[in-house]
Amino acid sequence: MAPKDYVARGQAKKKPANGKKKPAPAAASPASAPSTPWGRILITLALVVGFAYFLWTIKDTAPESAEPLPKEIVAEKVKPEEVIPEPPKEEWGYIQELENPEPGKFEEVKPLESNSSGRQYQMQCGSFRLEAQAEQMKARIAFQALESIIRATEGKNGLWYRVVLGPYNTKRAAEADRHKLQRAGFTTCQIWGWN
What we know:
This protein has a domain of 75 residues: Sporulation related repeat (Alpha-Beta Plaits, 2-Layer Sandwich), CATH 3.30.70. Helices cover 33% and strands 16% of the residues. The protein contains six helices and four strands, in the order H-H-H-H-E-H-E-E-H-E. Strands 2-3-1-4 form a four-stranded antiparallel sheet. It is flat, with a radius of gyration of 49 Å.
């Protein structure tokens, strides 16, 4: 065979140390396949039989307890049902005061602010040519727990869809909602007032 064939098969051609050529090994015939490892099978079988014999010899050698357990240990294991104590009586009287209030004891809640000037405020956050864009902004505002409406107005430049909030009785309430929207990324909101 050519040296090329030896390299292709992953074998390297070795030269003998004494310089003589070795005879080529005889090709293995399919009939001379390795025999069954009977030694391993016999050792494994002997170990299994030995372990089974060991288990059979110790099966009745467990010690039996000659004395029963002391009564104290049995009593600790099996306890009678514990009696649940009655709940303590309440020392507080606020529940009765809330159920039966005395007249004049609680102050009436006053409104936060009243608008004495009669002026109302409205906040506009966007104006769009397409109604779908206005609906989109209305939905984003709704995620901030605020209610807005879309008003269609006709102007010099055609039909516009405005997204507005309000009316508010005080400018402070309108400013509070505008700050909430600014924190959410709405930077185009303007507050308008009218009488």
